[in-house]
Structure formats: C-alpha cells, structure tokens
C-alpha cells in the first residue's frame, strides 16, 4: 500500500500532484471567461494545436539530438498554442464569419499536423498518445517548473485583472465606450487559455484539457450566483477533482486524465441535483396560497428529487 | 469632478461631417452635432433612422467612415476621451452566460483606460446603487431582475464614473411608469448639477419639459436641430398621432419591429 508520505516524497508522484493543483487553480479561471464569452470550445481547439507543437518540439529535438527525445515537446506545445490563440483572435476580429468554422479548422489542422510531423521526427503516433490522453509517467522536473511559471502568469492575469476581464467579456459595448483595452483583453484571455492547455496536457491530455476549464464552471453556476463567486467555487471544485482523481490513479491503475474529467462531471451532476432539490423546496412556500398536489406534481417530476 | 481638466470651455460633444456605414450600406450621412456643457439633448427619430448608430459612433463603439468626433475636447479614439463619459447602451439580449450581480456590474463602471482594478466595495458603488433605488438588490444577479431594475443598474454603472457627459440609448424602453419617473427625476437632478446629457428617446415622455434641444434624424440624415416644440413629425410607423397618445399607452410594449 502506498502511503501519503510516499506520494509526497517520490518525485514520480510529487511532480504530477503539484501540476494537478496548478491545473485545478488555473483551468477554471480561464474557463470562466470562455464560458462568459461563449467560447467553450476554444480550449479544445488549442489542445489540438498544442499537439502539433509537441510534434514540432520532437522534430527540433531530433535535429539537436536532444535527450530525452521529447525534451522540447512542452516548449513546442507552448509556442504552438500561443500562436494558435493569437491567430484565432485575429481571425475572429478581421473576419466576421462564423468562428466555429475557424475552430473546426484548428481542430483538424492540429491533429493532422501532429501525426504527420511526429512521423517526420522519426516517431510514431504512439508517441503522441501520452499527450492526447495524459499520463503520469512522463512528468519531469522541467515540466513541473514550466507548469509553475505558466500558472503564476495565468493567475496573475486571470485573477489579478478579473474586474477588467469580467467587464469586457460581459459587455463589449460598454467596455469600448469606457475606453477599456478590449482587444488586449481578448488576446490575454486567448493566451491564458493557451498557457493552461500547455500546463495541463501532460496529465489530463490534449483531448480532455478543456473539460477542466468548462465543467467546474458549469457546476459552480448551479451552486452560486455572481461572477467572482462562480470563479472561486469552480476553482475549489477543480482542485479537489484534479488532486482526487490523481490520487485515485495512484492506487488503481487508471488513466489520470479520464478519471479527473469523470470526477468533474460527477460534481456537475451532483450540483444539478442539489440545485433541483433547493428549487423544489423554495417553490413550495412561494407557490401561492395552498398549491394543490396537481399543481406541484410537474415541478417535482422535473427534478431528480421525486420520491 | 475634473472641472477644467483639459476639456476647457469648448463643446462637450463635437461631431463634424460624420458618416457611418454598416455592412456596406451607409446609415449615417454627414452629421454635424455640437453639444455645450449642461445641455440636455434628445436624439429622436423613427426606428432605423440612425439615432442609435449616431450615439454609438459618438462614444467610439462604432468607427466613423468619414468625419471626426470629439468628446470633452479629445478625439474619441483616445482613451482619456472616455474618462468623463458615462454610457448606457440599449438593453442587450446577451449579458453573458455568467450573470454578474448588480454590485459587480456597477463596480465595472469604475474601470477606465488607466484604471484596471475596480473594487466592488468602493463606497461610490453603493452611492450609485442608492441613487437609482437599487441598493436593496445589490447582491442579485442582473438576469434575475425585471427590465426596469436592470435598466437602473446599467444607469448606476454609468453614474459611478461621476460622468461629465451621460449618454443613454432609450433609457425608458421596457420600463414601468414609476421607474420612468424615478429615472427622469434623476436626469433633472444631474442636469441641474451641470452634467451634460445626450439621450436617444423614442418618445420625449416624462422629459418633454426638460429637453433643451431636440435633434431629429430621418433615414440617416439630420432633419431638425432646435426646440422640441418645433420638431417635424416624421414618425409614420407607429399608428398614433404625435403628442396625442399619452405616454402610458406606449408603455410595456417593446416597439422594435425586427
């Protein structure tokens, strides 16, 4: 049996645990702005682009004969996702065509670029699996340091400037009239998303990064009101799920990314149930003078609280 | 307030030869508009006449195709031009999917090109909520409010900036009569204190006697700039004779066709 002490003293587990906490703190911060802007899929798009970056990093590493071969994978992912983020913000601004098409192209291009370039680098698409679905075995000290730096940047912007970012994402027109730097804010949010994707993909995987941005926020929306409280609640949920999911995989041989994401979805469902229960309870006294059983029935039937 | 802060004695709003196109079609033609400090100017016209477009171009939300716009003595493209401006946009259908509370919304009005850290606990936020009679609902998300309550929160967000110039787009639309009176009283008080107001109105309504000047647009051109009583009646689209319909008959019904 592995004790908590073993986990904290073993580099193999300590690094992923640190990164899990960082993912839990950063992903919902970015996610709050993405949900607000109705750009929930941006994280997915950037995850795919980051995959191309991993392959490019691998290719450059091969040229430089770097050891291990994937030494430059994460820096590559960082560069690619930041470039992708700025590019999509630019495309969104100059072309008023539908942004979901731009996102779709990002998805396909990212995956296709990844599998083609990894082959050129002398690897196979098998090498990409760890980045697609996440794994614990690949986390190095360098990864942890990079993740720490990225997390500090994301939190400094996302939490430090939350008033400005929330104002711009909530009401673009008011923000422009107030003289706020609307374009800078939009780019900052996209870049924050890119940094979060990079720091999360090792453990959670490029295909599932976005879930940690979006699902905890969606769960928090069922539990609290107000922008700041939604963000804080989502951060608590995500940290608990990321650390909890990781610890489960220490004891049971399961992929960490999948377990973490399933946990967040479980919290979302639980939040939904809690809200329905509260709404059902609240609607009873507020239901006017003496609601009949027939009046109350449709309300009860809608909630999972039906007894 | 920042009296004499670079704005000087010149006009508060100065628009010269302004034209605006949207989707390749010209919707404003060669507009000249100058507003002096302390005026209460109503911008009138039928739906689609371009009054909201003019307002949005004046505050820098829409780009001008030609011409120039100055606010408080500075070009609107400049960040500092917006410092003394309080803007209340038209009721928007999309307030984001994570509703802010009234307090958070009003606090965002404290932001400017140079001030990026507002505080929801700033006493000015409470004062602004108090001024519009919304202090009791400070913690409520704006999506769980009536149209009139939300309107008042948006006005508070503009007031918290302590603006020299207040620009409002249809502040009475979808607002019940008592709230209209409350808002009109507030405007009179601000006007008496020297705040300049530029208001897009569908009906002159409770402000009829307070408007110092009416500007009327028709198909993107200015057709009147002078006293309210002398404005031309060009409003055929709404089926009631001008001034004959009491205000409360038009209330509650949203009058946007599209």
Automatic annotation (TrEMBL), chain A:
Q: How does it sit in the membrane?
A: Multi-pass membrane protein
Keywords, sorted A to Z? Membrane, Transmembrane, Transmembrane helix, Transport
What residue ranges are annotated as transmembrane?
12-34, 46-66, 72-91, 103-125, 145-168, 180-197, 203-227, 234-252, 258-278
GO CC annotations, alphabetized? ATP-binding cassette (ABC) transporter complex
Asked if Transmembrane helix is a keyword of the record, the answer is yes
What is a biological process (GO) this protein takes part in?
transmembrane transport
- Pfam families listed in its UniProt record: ABC-3
Protein's cellular compartments: Cell membrane; Membrane
Q: Where is the composition biased (Low complexity)?
A: 291-307
| Primary location recorded for the protein, binned into one broad class | membrane
Protein family per UniProt: Belongs to the ABC-3 integral membrane protein family.
Concerning PANTHER family, the annotation shows: ABC-TRANSPORTER METAL-BINDING PROTEIN, METAL TRANSPORT SYSTEM MEMBRANE PROTEIN TM_0125-RELATED
Name of the protein this chain belongs to: Metal ABC transporter permease
User: What organism does the UniProt record list as the source?
Assistant: Brachybacterium paraconglomeratum
Identify the taxonomic lineage of the organism of origin.
Answer: Bacteria, Bacillati, Actinomycetota, Actinomycetes, Micrococcales
UniProtKB/TrEMBL annotation, chain B:
Residue ranges of every copy of the ABC transporter domain listed in the record: 13-244
Q: Where is the composition biased (Basic and acidic residues)?
A: 224-243
Tell me one Pfam family matched here: ABC_tran
Superkingdom in the source lineage? Bacteria
Q: Which UniProt keywords apply?
A: ATP-binding, Nucleotide-binding, Transport
Q: List the molecular function annotations (GO) for this entry.
A: ATP binding
Q: Which residues cross the membrane?
A: none
The name this protein carries in UniProt is: ABC transporter ATP-binding protein
Q: Which organism is it from?
A: Brachybacterium conglomeratum
